[in-house]
Amino acid sequence: MKTDFIVRQITEADYSTVYNLIRTAFETAEHRDGDEQDFAVNLRNGNNYIPELDLVAERDGELIGHIMFTKTYVTQPDGSRYNTLMVAPLAVLLEYRSFGVGSALMKEGLRIAETMGYQSAFLIGDPNYYQRFGYKLTHLYGINHESMPAEYLQVKELTQGALDGVTGLINM
Question: Which residue has the higher pLDDT, 51 or 172?
Answer without folding.
Answer: 51
